[in-house]
């Protein structure tokens, strides 16, 4: 192909040996294309750097798509605030999609996306299949994953936090307060951040030459009910913990309620540490000791990165982890003799 020859749908169709409508269907995410044909067309679109916005003069759409698996917690609202702030600074707006599944974006979502213009996609705490990645790349749509569920595929740009360091700091704080029976409530086993926080918890105990007791590690969701139910289970043990590190602030609030229902006081009888530092953590009673995860900053960085990629800029690194920080408040105290 000549370097001066414009990359058009007709050119892609000619090289792929298919019709122009078939290439158009692939670009627009339509389902009625054979998988082998779709793969061949997408490969050519990527190879030739096809730009869907060529017909509109490369004018930015002024929109960033923010895609959630779920949006039922204050955690998601912090992400929205960060993304909206960064988009506003760039003169853009945010379009929010909720998938109601952690399986990641599927065909229906791709078809809706294809029906309008966007400058890029920020995908939050969700899986991202190879097929969706190929379709986004075929349409020259930049995308960034925030807090990915699993290890991102090579080449995928992602933004997260130092979850291992956060788990280490939270547990070390409890160890330094004299606690020896320290429990951990984590999130779903298949989420990268969940395992990293457990690994940090384990590292802190091992560094202090303390055993890691399997019965003191519980898994659940990052929601209040999970903290409540797992808190009850831990406090029902014959040798219950004197401190609990919860994998989220919402879980910690559930532990607060479980302790109250059992006649235990926080922090006099039970120390509790959360993770996230949501605005509610400061106004809880007692105010929650927690690991600050820079949620707004994570979302803002992802949004700025997507917009920069849309301008043809390449990120310096594919994986960015922003620092976490232990915030000590009143829900933790030295172990009582």
Automatic annotation (TrEMBL):
Domain HTH lacI-type: 7-61
Pfam families cross-referenced by the UniProt entry: LacI, Peripla_BP_3
GO molecular function, one term: transcription cis-regulatory region binding
Keyword DNA-binding tagged: yes
Lineage top rank: taxon: Bacteria
Keywords assigned by UniProt, alphabetized: DNA-binding, Transcription, Transcription regulation
Protein name: LacI family DNA-binding transcriptional regulator
Source organism of this protein record: Nonomuraea rhodomycinica
């Amino acid at each position: 192909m000549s370097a001066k020859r414009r990359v058009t749908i007709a050119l892609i169709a000619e090289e792929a040996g298919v019709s122009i409508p078939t290439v158009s269907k692939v670009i627009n995410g339509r389902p009625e294309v054979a998988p082998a044909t779709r793969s061949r067309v997408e490969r050519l679109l990527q190879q030739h750097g096809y730009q869907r916005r060529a017909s509109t003069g490369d004018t930015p759409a002024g929109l960033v798509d923010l895609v959630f698996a779920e949006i039922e917690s204050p955690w998601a609202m912090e992400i929205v605030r960060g993304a909206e702030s960064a988009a506003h600074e760039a003169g853009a707006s945010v379009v929010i999609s909720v998938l109601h599944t952690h399986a990641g974006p599927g065909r229906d979502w791709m078809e809706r996306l294809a029906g309008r213009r966007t400058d890029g996609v920020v995908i939050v705490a969700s899986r991202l299949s190879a097929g969706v990645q190929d379709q986004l790349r075929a349409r020259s749509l930049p995308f960034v994953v925030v807090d990915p569920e699993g290890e991102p595929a090579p080449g995928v740009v992602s933004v997260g936090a130092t979850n291992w360091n956060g788990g280490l700091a939270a547990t070390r704080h409890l160890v330094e307060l004299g606690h020896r029976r320290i429990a951990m409530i984590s999130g779903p086993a298949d989420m990268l951040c969940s395992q990293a926080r457990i690994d940090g918890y384990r590292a802190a105990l091992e560094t202090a030459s303390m055993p890691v007791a399997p019965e003191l590690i519980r898994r659940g969701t990052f929601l209040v009910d999970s903290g409540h139910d797992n808190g009850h289970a831990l406090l029902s043990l014959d040798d219950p913990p004197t401190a609990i590190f919860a994998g989220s602030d919402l879980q910690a609030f559930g532990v607060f309620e479980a302790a109250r229902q059992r006649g235990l006081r926080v922090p006099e009888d039970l120390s509790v540490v959360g993770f996230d530092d949501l605005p509610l953590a400061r106004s809880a009673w007692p105010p929650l000791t927690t690991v600050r995860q820079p949620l707004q900053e994570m979302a803002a960085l992802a949004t700025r990165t997507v917009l920069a990629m849309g301008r043809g800029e390449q990120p310096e690194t594919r994986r960015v982890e922003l620092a976490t920080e232990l915030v000590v408040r009143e829900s933790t105290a030295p172990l009582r003799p």
